[in-house]
């Protein structure tokens, strides 16, 4: 009886663990088998026949950092209702429709508030492992980007502004060696500080994100405001980045220099109090610390 009880317990434990499926991805979305080679860990948990949880964790030297979590509820017609949260306490919702077009390959369409936000192909219906062409849309239906993936790795893309005009093409978002500012952290901080001291910024609790592309030759191009609700403040920080002297060391992927997209966030809680804590990270992230 004791031996039988042990066998039953082990079988039950194996069944529970089998409901968690773990995927590891390296640079540029490359699937890897060993956790030591990964920069992202995705865990898909089946909690019932119609409910899944998906957790995206960034692998760091200290500990994994949760960057996105999703709760998926599958309707009778196969539609997925997805509630997700990333970098905020507030969750958002969207809907994903999937259709198997051939064994192991699904066509998907994602909608938010009744508008299509992304279409494409995936080999996994619950966590997206991208294959072939994927199209993203701005609100209103204007195409944001058309990208091609091979085994979840970005091959090339075409990108557009919200008005439909062409942006910079063939931009990578994950590279072996990220782009870095040639004059360094301290110069960056002092330059922004000198600009801020010339103007009176309003008291605010505001997050402004400036996006740009570091070209193969190290020049900064395509500078644009990605987030920010006060036009004058958005313009000020965009112009500050446009005026930044010097160049960048371009990103590298598979030993070759490539175009890479960087985001520079300004998290403001007042006009000047936080600026002395300005810090530029190695991957081009400009942060304010309390």
Keywords:
single chain, 290 residues, mainly beta, 2 domains, 12-stranded antiparallel β-sheet, 5-stranded mixed β-sheet, globular
- Regarding quaternary structure, how should these chains be classified? single chain
What structural class do you assign from the helix and strand content?
A: mainly beta
Largest sheet: 12 strands, antiparallel
The percent of residues in helical segments reads 10-25%
**Number of E-type strands:** 21
Report mean pLDDT, rounded to a whole number.
85
Taken from the alpha-carbon principal axes, the silhouette is globular
Count of folded domains: 2
Would you mind describing this structure in some detail?
- The chain is mostly beta strands and 290 residues long.
- It has two domains: 2-167, no CATH class; 180-288, no CATH class.
- It has helices spanning 2-18, 184-196, 231-243, and strands spanning 20-25, 31-32, 40-48, 51-58, 65-74, 80-85, 92-102, 105-112, 115-122, 132-137, 143-150, 153-159, 171-172, 180-181, 206-214, 220-227, 248-249, 251-253, 256-268, 278-280, 286-288.
- The protein has a twelve-stranded antiparallel beta sheet. Strands 13, 15, 16, 18 and 19 form a five-stranded mixed beta sheet that branches. A two-stranded antiparallel sheet has the order 14-17.
- Strand 3 and strand 4 form a beta hairpin.
- It is globular, with a radius of gyration of 22 Å.
- The termini are far apart.
């Amino acid at each position: 009886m004791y031996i039988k009880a042990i066998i039953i317990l082990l079988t039950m434990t194996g069944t529970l663990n089998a409901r968690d499926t773990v995927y590891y991805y390296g640079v540029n979305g490359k699937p890897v088998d060993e956790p030591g080679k990964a920069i992202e860990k995705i865990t898909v948990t089946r909690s019932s026949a119609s409910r899944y949880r998906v957790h995206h964790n960034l692998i760091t030297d200290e500990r994994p950092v949760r960057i996105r979590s999703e709760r998926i509820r599958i309707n009778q017609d196969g539609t997925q209702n997805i509630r997700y949260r990333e970098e905020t306490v507030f969750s958002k919702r969207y809907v994903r429709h999937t259709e198997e077009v051939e064994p192991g390959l699904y066509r998907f369409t994602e909608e938010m508030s009744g508008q299509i936000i992304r279409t494409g192909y995936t080999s996994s219906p619950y966590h997206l492992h991208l294959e072939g062409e994927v199209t993203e849309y701005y609100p209103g239906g204007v195409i944001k980007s058309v990208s091609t993936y091979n085994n979840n790795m970005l091959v090339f893309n075409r990108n557009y502004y919200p008005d439909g005009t062409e942006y910079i093409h063939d931009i990578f978002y994950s590279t072996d060696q990220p782009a870095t500012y040639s004059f360094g952290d301290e110069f960056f901080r002092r330059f922004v500080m000198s600009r801020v001291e010339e103007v009176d910024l309003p008291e605010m609790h505001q997050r402004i994100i400036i996006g740009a592309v570091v070209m193969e030759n190290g020049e900064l191009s395509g500078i644009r405001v990605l987030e920010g609700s006060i036009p004058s403040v958005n313009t000020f920080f965009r112009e500050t980045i446009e005026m930044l002297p010097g160049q960048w060391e371009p990103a590298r992927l598979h030993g070759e220099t490539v175009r890479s997209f960087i985001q520079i966030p300004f998290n403001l809680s007042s006009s000047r109090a936080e600026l002395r804590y300005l810090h530029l990270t190695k991957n081009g992230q400009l942060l304010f610390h309390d």
